[in-house]
Amino acid sequence: MASLKDMRNRIASVKATRKITKAMQMVAAAKLRRAQEAATAARPYALRMGEVMASINATMSGKQGASPLLVGTGKDQMHLLVVMTAERGLCGGFNTNIARLARQDALRLTKDGKTVKVLCVGRKGADALRREWGRHIVERVDIKGIKQIGFTNAQDIARKILVLFEAGEFDVATLYFSEFKSVIAQKPTALRLIPAGSESPASAPAKPGAMHEFEPSEEEILGPLIERNIATQVFRGLLENAASEQGARMSAMDSATRNAGDMINKLTIRYNRQRQANITKELIEIISGAEAL
After folding, report:
1. What is the pTM of this model?
2. Mean pLDDT of the chain
3. Less packed terminus of the chain by CB within 10 Å, N or C?
């Protein structure tokens, strides 16, 4: 049985841990509001951009000279999975759920005889996939130290994806991130990046759109537009992930704080019982000694 000193030390240790988890919960709550506002503000533009690209994709399919970024290479043998996670842990199942979805799709593709390559954005995704899919990881992009995510960060990631596509490293690219629903609900999502606007199992069918006329020419307009769409979807994924991470961390730290409080109460009861037993034992020894005299 642990001594009273050991129990006091353990209670003090759990109290210190509770202070840390409470502080992390408050920090996550403070960051969540700004991250949620940014994700909510960027979502309509990204969704509308996706609808426009889907409409143009349906119009341009089968045309000679259409950009492979829009209509695809005509093959789907090589797949690039862009897995976006956080740089830090202590946020519940946030990172694990995204990695699990990517892992399931990778297993399905390999069973179908496809070649899978992984581009990890964030350290935790690379750590989760390294054991099974380490040899498939082509690059890891660190976002550590970025205080506020900007569109330039998304453009850098989109540029890496485009360089790999131009080098013939893949035919289809899919983005994995966690869509923010609420503090207690974040939905792992798979979004098709290339071909732009094409249907994917995780996306809804494209709605019929209006006919588009291009001025001065389709090639001059669609090239920058498709590249911007890729950067926009990546930016949306970064913002959704940032909000989801803070929401998941806030919820996880709240649960940890509550659990620490319960543990402190249980340890305190055990400590008081042990202390009372020791006092009773000492009293019995004193009375027994007095009676013996």
Report:
1. 0.83
2. 85
3. C
